[in-house]
């Protein structure tokens, strides 16, 4: 068996993860000869449980390897190992890279420039807007987006990228044949059909578990060229990805949020601690010396407005976020008309409610 086969085989043996594979790799000088090593030698491997050693002895065969490959064909799934030239180069150099990645889609994306976008699974309207806007504008510039295909910010980051015309990479906390959450299966199919890629370090038949998501986050950070936190609470799981990014030497960006919003406490905190504040895609591009020409950002498109709509837009531009009562004071219009106009402006994509009847220009 070659080394790729050995990593594939080991990853399918119950109880073995990337840490155990690393222990085996460290113990033997040449893992590609692992299939001809004696059972006695396997039982000598240190720091591995007896149960796992028995599983290795029982399943270490070319017959089982053939069954594994047939099952991958059945699921139309491919794989790449750390020994392969197609393995993501940036990921290979982190502290704890997975020895094998299973995937569906365009493997060439794994070594292209990309920005990770992550955030809350229960975002505010503001967070949804920011994820969509920034992702779509980066995508329109040819920048691929990587995220975790969870509900919330992940979902809208992938969606914005697809709408912008570039490719998106999704890293799962389960196997590809058992995607989590199930409601995002349609998104997963769209990613593949749009020449994106779905990734997982877990073999077919692996259900999502809470502990798998932090491990998934190291892959998101490892493959990316930088990590953007769109919206996160003070104890958000997104901050785990940020810590990985710092360990990996990646740029960390964050979008500021409403100081009264619980969902922005994490984002605002990491900006104070040194993450780069992002108010537009320009803040990201300048870190990589990327210059774009003749590409309009969404805010640059002209939209026809009525006299009262223009008045409210001007007031919000001049004053920032305002409660509806203050908008009434500035415009001298009654609150019923104001709410109707604000609703129209939200539909037109110009204004967003930040919560508690506080409005801002998108």
UniProtKB/TrEMBL annotation:
Superkingdom of source: Bacteria
InterPro entries: DprA, DrpA_SLOG, RuvA_2-like, WH-like_DNA-bd_sf
Protein family: Belongs to the DprA/Smf family.
Record organism: Tepidibacter hydrothermalis
Origin organism lineage: Bacteria, Bacillati, Bacillota, Clostridia, Peptostreptococcales
Name the record gives this protein: DNA-processing protein DprA
Pfam families in UniProt: DNA_processg_A
Segments forming domain Smf/DprA SLOG: 79-288
């Amino acid at each position: 068996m070659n080394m790729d086969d050995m990593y594939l085989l080991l990853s399918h043996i119950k109880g073995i993860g990337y840490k155990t594979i690393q222990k085996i790799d460290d113990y033997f000088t040449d893992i590609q000869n692992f299939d001809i090593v004696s059972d006695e030698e396997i039982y000598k491997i240190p720091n591995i449980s007896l149960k796992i050693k028995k599983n290795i002895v029982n399943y270490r065969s070319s017959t089982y390897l053939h069954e594994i490959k047939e099952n991958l064909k059945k699921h139309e799934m491919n794989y790449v190992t750390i020994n392969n030239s197609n393995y993501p180069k940036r990921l290979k150099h982190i502290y704890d890279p997975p020895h094998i990645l299973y995937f569906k889609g365009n493997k060439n994306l794994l070594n292209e420039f990309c920005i990770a976008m992550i955030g809350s699974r229960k975002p505010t309207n503001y967070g949804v807007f920011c994820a969509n806007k920034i992702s779509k504008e980066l995508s329109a510039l040819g920048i691929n987006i990587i995220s975790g295909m969870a509900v919330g910010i992940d979902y809208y980051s992938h969606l914005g990228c697809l709408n912008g015309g570039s490719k998106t990479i999704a890293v799962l906390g389960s196997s590809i044949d058992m995607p989590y959450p199930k409601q995002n299966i349609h998104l997963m199919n769209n990613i593949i059909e749009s020449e994106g890629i779905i990734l997982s370090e877990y073999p077919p038949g692996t259900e999502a578990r809470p502990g798998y998501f932090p491990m998934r986050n190291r892959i998101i950070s490892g493959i990316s060229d930088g990590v953007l936190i769109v919206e996160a609470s003070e104890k958000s799981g997104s901050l785990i990805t940020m810590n990985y990014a710092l360990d990996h030497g990646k740029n960390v960006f964050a979008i500021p949020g409403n100081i009264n919003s619980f969902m922005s406490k994490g984002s605002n905190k990491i900006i104070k601690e040194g993450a780069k504040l992002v108010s537009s895609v320009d803040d990201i591009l300048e870190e990589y010396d990327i210059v774009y020409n003749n590409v309009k950002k969404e805010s640059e498109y002209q939209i026809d407005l009525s006299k009262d709509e223009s008045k409210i837009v001007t007031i919000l531009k001049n004053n920032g976020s305002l409660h509806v009562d203050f908008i009434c004071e500035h415009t001298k219009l009654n609150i019923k008309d104001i709410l109707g106009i604000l609703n129209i402006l939200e539909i037109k994509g110009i204004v967003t409610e930040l919560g508690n009847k506080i409005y801002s220009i998108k």
